[in-house]
Amino acid sequence: LAKKEGRSTYRYHTEALSIAANERLVMETRLRHALTAGEFVLHYQPLIDAHSGRAVGVEALVRWQPPGEAIVPPGKFIPIAEETGLIVPLGEWVLRTACAQGRAWIDAGFAPLVMAVNLSVRQFQSENLAEVIQRVLEETKLPAACLELELTESMFMEHAERSIDTLKTLKAPGIQLAIDDFGTGYSSLTYLKRFPIDKLKIDQSFVRGLAHDPNDREIAATIIAMARGLKLSVLAEGVESEQQLAFLRQHGCDYYQGFLFHRPAPAKELEAWLREHSAQP
Ligand code: C2E
Ligand code: MG
Ligand code: MG
Ligand code: MG
């Protein structure tokens, strides 16, 4: 009996696995189609300067809009795009679209905004990343100083020396570099003093508990103090409440991002708000 059960359990697992594998294959095919069919869209979420209270930038966040279906958040397809390598062309599309939007806002007379773009591990590892970025900046005519790249700690885990070289190359034309989801990765803190980084983005998991969790308060306060000591700027992600904001303000956080200010939204929907809330040109 045990043997029989063992075998059926095994069969159950392989069936489950092949269903999962099949779903992934279907998803991969759909994503490839989505890229050529133009089904991806970018939403933009304001980045707020703590001193002026004004928007000084936006983060570009990709979404998938299959025709006639609900919009799909990036958590549902970025991991598959990353595994299949589709993230490289998708990431380039994101970069070009975001930079073109940044340029369009300059041309339309908006106050200067930094355009923050997320990079994936695969993109960061690709040989020609710096050239792709350079080409996109030339094509879209967005000044390099208006582009900020968001990286994650996991990108630096392997090949630290090579990562430093990559970062220096990326930074050379004046692009700014931020560490996204700071505090959730496994990297050693030594990279903070050795890597040419401009900004830390405190992960929203620490911001969430600011009103009530003493540990989150301690972690957020420590990251802000450390950033100041290292002369890095620091942004808090996922700011949703006035209490969280009060804590961050009291501790000298430089920038905020979160639903309290604005949700990620299509460019057109954001424009009226940006006219009211961005710095004077
Ligand atoms: P992220 O880069 O850390 O982006 C911030 C996420 O937090 C976004 O989720 C945003 O909608 C959400 N958020 C902002 N304010 C709040 C808030 O007040 N409360 C809460 N609960 N959430 C808030 P989203 O758009 O679903 O993106 C999730 C992740 O997907 C991003 O995290 C990023 O890692 C990845 N992603 C998004 N767009 C791209 C992209 O173009 N390329 C790559 N490689 N990854 C991307
Ligand atoms: Mg980000
Ligand atoms: Mg983040
Ligand atoms: Mg995050």
* Sheet with the most strands: spatial strand order: 1-2-3-4-5-6-7-8
Q: Give me the strand/helix succession.
A: HEEHHEHHEHEHEHHEHEH
Q: Please give the number of β-strands.
A: 8
Estimate the global geometry from the Cα principal axes: globular
Protein name: PAS domain S-box-containing protein/diguanylate cyclase (GGDEF) domain-containing protein
Domain EAL: 24-278
Explain this structure.
The protein has helices spanning about 1-35, 80-85, 85-105, 120-125, 130-140, 160-170, 190-195, 205-210, 215-230, 240-250, 265-275; strands at about 40-50, 55-65, 115-120, 145-150, 175-180, 200, 235, 255. The chain is α/β, with parallel strands linked by helices and about 280 residues long. The radius of gyration is 21 Å and the shape is globular. The N and C termini lie far apart (about 75 Å). The chain binds ligand C2E and magnesium ion (3 copies). One magnesium ion binds near residues 180, 181, 201 and 237. Ligand C2E binds next to β2, α3 and β5. This is PAS domain S-box-containing protein/diguanylate cyclase (GGDEF) domain-containing protein.
